[in-house]
Amino acid sequence: MNPKQTSASSRWLNFKENNYIFSDLGFALDLSGIAMPAGFKSEMEPRLQKAYDGMQHLESGDIANPDEGRQVGHYWLRDPKLAPDLGVRAEIDSTIKRILAFSGSVHRGETRARPATKFTNVLVIGIGGSALGPQLAAAAMASPNDRMRMFFCDNTDPDGIDGVLTRIAAAAGGLAATLTIVTSKSGGTKETRNGMLEVANAYKRAGLEFNKHFVAITCPGSELDKLAIGEKWLDRFPLWDFVGGRTSIMSAVGLLPMALQGTNISEFLAGAKAMDAQTRSRETNRNPAALLALAWHHATGGAGKKDMVILPYKDRLELFSRYLQQLVMESLGKEKDLTGRVVEQGIAVYGNKGSTDQHAYVQQLREGVHNFFVTFVEVLKDRGNVAEGSAPFDVEPGVQSGDYLSAFLQGTRSALRDKGRESVTITLTHVDARMLGALIAMYERTVGHYASLVGINAYHQPGVEAGKKAAAGVLNIQNRILNELKRTAVPLTVDALAASVPELNDEQETIYKVLEHLAANARVRKSSGKDAYSAAYRII
Amino acid sequence: MNPKQTSASSRWLNFKENNYIFSDLGFALDLSGIAMPAGFKSEMEPRLQKAYDGMQHLESGDIANPDEGRQVGHYWLRDPKLAPDLGVRAEIDSTIKRILAFSGSVHRGETRARPATKFTNVLVIGIGGSALGPQLAAAAMASPNDRMRMFFCDNTDPDGIDGVLTRIAAAAGGLAATLTIVTSKSGGTKETRNGMLEVANAYKRAGLEFNKHFVAITCPGSELDKLAIGEKWLDRFPLWDFVGGRTSIMSAVGLLPMALQGTNISEFLAGAKAMDAQTRSRETNRNPAALLALAWHHATGGAGKKDMVILPYKDRLELFSRYLQQLVMESLGKEKDLTGRVVEQGIAVYGNKGSTDQHAYVQQLREGVHNFFVTFVEVLKDRGNVAEGSAPFDVEPGVQSGDYLSAFLQGTRSALRDKGRESVTITLTHVDARMLGALIAMYERTVGHYASLVGINAYHQPGVEAGKKAAAGVLNIQNRILNELKRTAVPLTVDALAASVPELNDEQETIYKVLEHLAANARVRKSSGKDAYSAAYRII
After folding, report:
1. Global pTM?
2. Are residues A472 and A522 in the same domain?
3. Is the ipTM of this complex over 0.95?
4. Distance (Å, whole) CA A61 – CA A65
């Protein structure tokens, strides 16, 4: 046997040993591109057993988010009988039933804003966990049979909101035929509140009664919930404390928009439930989430030393990388471990889709800074809607577009391997609601297992408050500035404003940034100064 | 003075010293969030002077891409008189004129496929440099006044192509009113060729003559050029050897789609030309590209040690991070430096937009693995189409949606700074065609200067061929498999196929992957085996 043969045949053995096939799920996980040394798995096994224990406690209703004193119940959403509380079970069940009834009623034209106009468009207003899940699902499930057109408003950018409203106006039916879902778990998310107010104003400008178009998804009793009751919105759907934003796609947050679009949400939930059953296995080789968590640990040194590049070779999964960016980075990006030690954990995630990204940055992946591992997502079925018996469309004799897509994936994987760049390959037989549910469930569990392996809490986000507080401080400064400019009615410089009231002392940089923004929007006027910093501002 | 005051006032001094304002360009670069030590700039100055020399040579027509023996002339596209060759000048000029004439004729309905149908939709087929630029421009310039609706096909995913065709069918006019631009510099890009064939087939299925809808953008004499001539396409626009894909947005690749959408391409080019003039300055403090290259060098250790997170706080600039991902990673991700030493250079780039991304992964940025620096892109003007004299829309008394956007940017920046995370802030007064041109030009030059600082060539991409070759190998293997299965007409296993012909020896893994893909698309049939690897396959 010559060396080349040895290497090829050992590669085949390696592939057969490390390509984990889960036929019932239509799913395979190929770890042959991650060079885990012999013994690594058995060395990690005790920690995995601990992870399985932790997951069992979590699923049984332990307080897994101690910061907020919350249970972590996203696994209950697809298998309500797991929920330890009977009331919770009933609420999950009844919410799914109400979503099915409501979406059916909208589709049949029974629920509508005015007698003559059926709802044909859906606008979802939300941000973060309240937007990315529905956005992913809308793109992944899009088909010529969609029941409604989906639009999203996921920021407090007024120009961006105007852009969404322009696109809605251009769609059949326009705003009059648009059902708007406002999603905020806490009911107090400012970006979402602002989007809601801007969109309500657009309805008013169009002579429409916005409350007959608005639906709320929020925790019962929240500010948003009260508003929706007070303003007599079309409907309200509950969200619960035990569901984190980044894992809320299987609550009303994801299910209501999906059902309206025409996706089979029962199948979506069933796929997740089936995957959950598989990833509950204590036999590591039969647990894809545990296996993937091991691969992450090996590839990143258990310390985020490598970035995770996600490359689905399927246009409809393009947002999956962004979805994982949120799920992984918000769950794993933690300062302290469970013992309180500073560890600065996390894994950076990015990527769009193959083979498109090959033309953007595979140059660097293959030859440049070696700070990443790749996850290829392969989908075996090429196209959905080929009529039975229709001739295949060949781009060359016997070769189809999808063969190229597949060959580019294999080719890039092997070109990276030749340069010692590691990769995971996930193979899906096809993409449908059931598979999407399974895929998301697999990653949710992987994140949980990985967090356990590195000893951190995946279910809180203590670091996001500081930015919000600082933003509130900036708005407070803006308020002070405007008051001061109104009060004095003479032009004031940054330094003069800083000296004017205690709250503005030492805040020159923020004052300057606020004034610059107000001036650009014609809310204050800038007088000339010898430079930008000595200019004076006054109210217009 | 108490310590807090010292720190606040020194921050203000630091800001004033490091916030570089270029008023004529409506542009500022704030490097106060990058802790460059005193002396760093003067230490780097000799290398910058060398970078300026190199850029001068490049602009004068030196062979800056020695691999392909090519000049690098993207700066000429916006200032043709820089081109050393008179013929090149004339070609650039005449192409711009032809684009303006063609798009005007389409808008007036003079250029049309059939007498009754005006073109109202544009479909761009291209990948990498031939897609991302036009996609960025389409999103960044979108307005209610758009002359045509823009669609893109940027992959060889047949399901994705079907999806684009579904969306076109739903748009006013449908495919019959769609002008299709096929862009490939070499004229041989397989993804684009496949998209072209699939889309041409869709026109045929709809009873339309595709050649009356097709326009080619390619190097004269290419395979695609010959095809367009032979099939009598509507028109052809040239691309040149001296323009790299990732810097082709100011050639016909970007200009034709932009002009069709209704963007003022003369302003776009003028903005780039004005920025080029600024970034030609040999006075480093007056050269934003040089300053930014210094910041990159300091932040990444000149060795890609930190990722670059791009956060534009403006929905219409969301694709800018992807555009930079391509520009930066393909330019800087290089194995060897100019002396041939292995350096594995590059900077990983990712990001989407603020404040949306704050809800996705600022948790990790603030507290988790410290492997990045952030670039904030701030836009001062909040919304474009506010009618003169119309009342401002307040979300709270005196507070507008855009104030929140601005406050979230300032708040996040300060929360990151508190944790020692570095950031650059780019401020734009507004976004229009001129500003977009300037912004792109600034980054093109920064990449060039940075490459010079670290001693690599930014203008070639030697690493991308390996994946393409390997993909061609996979398709060759598929062909051999199909031939062998046809020839023997009995079911064969992976191992049997590998043993059957020399070209398949030792290729078991690839054979398995190819068979799995063919079976999922009903092109071969899989017989049961005791496991996936012992199954046999035959032609259906």
Report:
1. 0.97
2. yes
3. yes
4. 11
